[in-house]
Design goal:
- The protein contains seven helices and no strands.
- The two termini are 55 Å apart.
- By secondary structure, the protein is mostly helical.
- The chain is 81% helix and 0% strand.
- It folds into two domains: 58 residues, no CATH class; 82 residues, Arc Repressor Mutant, subunit A.
Amino acid sequence: TFCKLYEDHANLNIHLSIKSYLYKSVYNSCLNEIKHQKVVSNYADRELLDFYFSEIVQTPEAELALLGEDINNALREAINKLPERCREVFMLSKMEELSNKEIAERLGISVKTVEIQMTKALSRLRKELEWLLSLIFFVNF
């Protein structure tokens, strides 16, 4: 504001107090900057959408690969949020495809404890990933 004031000092015709003028100048400069940031943001969003629609939507394989990657990342994050024992039991069950009895023997716990840990893991994953079901439904229909 002071730079503008100095640069345009020959053209200025201040009718109010200098304090009021400076306040209004700063206020208007802030509003202009906010408007400018919105324009820049909209432009960046449009660029992203243009890229998405021109490159990804035109190639369904790329869109499916991107979606698959997002789903895998979400699953990985949700599994990592599980408590350690739940995560360990879940990984042995789903990734290594061990039975509850085999998991119990490997970890030195009862079969009932394995069942309880799997129930906890699946319940937490359901809560964590419920948005994913909506996404999958939306993409398929």
